[in-house]
Automatic annotation (TrEMBL):
GO terms for cellular component: plasma membrane. Pfam families: COX_ARM (PF06481). Signal peptide: none annotated. GO terms for molecular function: copper ion binding; cytochrome bo3 ubiquinol oxidase activity; cytochrome-c oxidase activity; oxidoreductase activity, acting on diphenols and related substances as donors, oxygen as acceptor. Its main location: membrane. NCBIfam families: CyoA. PANTHER family: CYTOCHROME BO(3) UBIQUINOL OXIDASE SUBUNIT 2, CYTOCHROME C OXIDASE, SUBUNIT II. Belongs to the cytochrome c oxidase subunit 2 family. This is Ubiquinol oxidase polypeptide II. Residues 15-111 form the Cytochrome oxidase subunit II transmembrane region profile domain. SUPFAM superfamilies: Cupredoxins, Cytochrome c oxidase subunit II-like, transmembrane region. GO terms for biological process: ATP synthesis coupled electron transport. It comes from Paracoccus onubensis. Residues 351-364 have a biased composition (Basic and acidic residues).
């Protein structure tokens, strides 16, 4: 039994021997500086942790039950002990706070790099490589706008060249993480986040989604290939040679949830695809968020847009396979803020004068006076009741 007891840890040690501490063996300058920050913070905390753990063992041994300890009932205070107890942690907290504050600002993911590596500054003519990233269900889409190609679950980057990632998500929040290159950054629908990083050592590194996002979350992994400039150009040429067009229609097919997608590339990409993905208007006929915000900035939809509400709807529950009510409420879409009778009168001009029927100013926007004519008649209770009784009640 004793031999068996000592043999229990052997399989555990054997399994852990295959693990690689990627965070502590980075391949890029940003990850290297993050590792230094992590080690410095850990070292500062160990200044307190190690003495405390040692004192726990010491007091347990000194005041054990079979030893008579000195009894001092009158003892109440020690200035020296109080000074050590409060001064040491306070100094460590000050140092740790200053180190974290400086390191956090220097390693801000939105901040362009100030160097390529410890020994290499950024050349004056250096241009970062822009990579647009979309977190789909459940796969990663990488778009290279400068090269005009795209890839699914595969990323190629030139070594010793700054990379600017622009990230968004198609449906739910996710997290983009290449441990050997840079820190983690979230990708969220309707928003754009940024991450700057660099690979200094060529090789193939693991990228993953570090935030749970549904059934296929565990399969959202990809290989990040750090190659030289010639190797990157060869990868781009190979992607173009394989063909395939990433159009808006193809993107909508990619949005449909799927798991464990094999890496593949596209030879061409719709140049407006990423901006439309950010603005949630890839589908034909959808109003983009940027347009909606511009309308709101000018005072709202106004009467002209009061029947265009459905174009603002962004609901991916059905596309993700969820047709059941959300939080107990049956899903619905608002197609109008007016009754059917109001809409009929808005779209039917009964003025007798032709010049008034063709006048586009008959509809006025926010905070402008309501004109006479059809809108004046709409305010009449008799006409309003008659128009409503002539059409069925609206259904939500």
């Amino acid at each position: 039994m004793k031999v068996f007891r000592y043999a229990i840890p052997v399989p555990v040690i054997a399994a852990l021997s295959g693990c690689e501490a990627v965070v502590l063996s980075p391949a890029g300058d940003i990850a290297e500086r993050q590792k230094d920050l992590l080690l410095a913070a850990t070292g500062l905390m160990l200044i307190i942790i190690i003495p405390v753990m040692a004192l726990v063992v010491f007091f347990a041994w000194k005041y054990r039950a079979d030893r008579k300890a000195t009894y001092q009932p009158e003892w109440a205070h020690s200035t020296k002990i109080e000074l050590v107890i409060w001064a040491a942690p306070l100094m460590i907290i000050i140092c740790l706070g200053a180190l974290t504050w400086v390191g956090t600002h220097l390693l801000d993911p939105y901040r362009p790099l100030d160097r390529i590596s410890k020994t290499a500054e950024i050349p004056p003519d250096h241009q970062p490589l822009e990579v647009q990233v979309v977190a789909l269900d459940w796969k990663w889409l990488f778009i290279y706008p400068e090269q005009g190609v795209a890839a699914i679950n595969e990323l190629a980057i030139p070594a010793n060249r700054e990379v600017e990632f622009r990230l968004t998500s198609s449906s739910v929040m996710n997290a983009f993480y290449i441990p050997a290159m840079a820190g983690m950054i979230y990708a969220m629908p309707g928003m754009e986040t940024k991450l700057h990083g660099v690979f200094n050592n060529p090789g193939s590194y693991q990228g993953l989604a570090s935030h749970y996002s549904g059934w296929g979350f565990s399969g959202m992994r990809f290989k990040a290939h750090a190659v030289d400039e010639a190797g990157f150009q060869d990868w781009v040429a190979d992607a173009r040679a394989k063909g395939g067009d990433l159009t808006r229609e193809e993107y909508l097919k990619l949005e449909v949830p799927s798991q464990n997608e094999s890496p593949r590339t596209y030879a061409s990409v719709d140049p407006e695809l990423f901006n439309r993905a950010v603005n949630l208007c890839v589908e034909p006929g959808k109003m983009c968020m940027a347009e909606m915000m511009a309308i709101d900035d000018k005072g709202g939809l106004g009467l002209e847009g009061s029947i265009n509400i459905q174009s603002l709807t962004h609901d991916k529950h059905a596309r993700r396979g969820n047709t059941e009510p959300v939080l107990g409420v049956t899903p619905f879409a608002v197609s109008s803020i007016c009754t059917p009778g109001d809409i009929a009168l808005m779209l039917t001009d009964t003025d007798e004068k032709p010049e008034r029927r063709s006048n586009p100013e008959r509809m006025h926007g926010h905070a402008l006076p309501v004109p006479t004519g059809v809108f004046g008649r709409m305010s009449s209770p008799a006409i309003r009741d008659a128009s409503r009784s002539a059409l069925p009640e609206p259904k939500l």
